[in-house]
Predict the structure.
Amino acid sequence: MLRLAPAGARTIVDMSYARHFLDFQGSNIPRAMQKLVATRLSPNFREAVTLCRDCPVPLPGDGDLLVRNRFVGVNASDINYSAGRYDPSVKTPFDVGFEGVGEVVALGLSASARYTVGQAVAYMAPGSFAEYTVVPARAAAPVASVKPEYVTVPVSGTTAYISLKELGGLSEGKKVLVTAAAGGTGQFAVQLAKKAKCHVIGTCSSGKKSAFLKSIGCDRPINYNAEHVGTVLKQEYPEGVDVVYESVGGAMFDLAVDALATKGRLIVIGFVSGYQTPTGLAPVRAGTLPAKLLKKSASVQGFFLNHYRSEYQAAVEHLLQMCADGDLVCEVDLGDLSAEGRFIGLESVFRAVDYMYMGKNTGKIVLELPHSVNSKL
């Protein structure tokens, strides 16, 4: 059974008649939509992904929601996904995008136990770079309203929260280094470490980003275009740092390893410096890594959000509540300062990805999807 949103009413129809209902019974849901599809595997996002303009609007299953996307998030790992690195067996074509915020416009009968048509939700599910996305109800969370700040939570916020909670061992007085600290995920790592009463150091690429980091509680921003990160760490933190939250890779990873204190922990949540390369990895001094870790009784551990599904729902609900209560800064970058202006419409995803890899963004990059001209909604 499927619950839909026809003009002025909500009706339950049998799944076998759902497409007929959408096409001919006055539904507000259009027959076709736009979405982004990976049509070849490549670390070059523009080469890998195609904007398809006449795709059928999908139907939700019994436990699913059909969400009309209003804001969607851009992640550095969108390139890894479209390059096929997360699942080497993946075959094109496949939908891209990880997260969004929008309204429920149709839902399966089981999903209607918790959700209703018209409700605002945030979610993490594949295929968010589309006007409409089918989202398993278990992958969504209710939000008070449709606003871009909520897009920061499903991937970026939960990655920081769960990784630091499970792997960080944070406690009062610990020194925490966050790389790419002014980005979509880094901003949460900084704030959560401060809430644990840690001393936080954050790397960034500009004076503007340094000011932002100070505004969210970072004790020592390091603008690596004005100061050498390794020199600052050696001079100001001679005993080392207790926790490194690392997402850059390459030379930054090497500096972070050298900066670890005795029994220090380095959490790898990404290696963005290598995402656009054919190999996917920027060189690191791996040959000396065992000796360095042994000398300090230190550790390096990776974190991939999909491996922590059991922790996910509680984390996303907790963070969304913090965001709604104003207890968490959820900075979004809508592209207002980009060369061509605000990121609006699916065609601007390509521009937003370029903007991110040029290091221009402060906070999470979010796109707005206006109402489709083909839709009455």
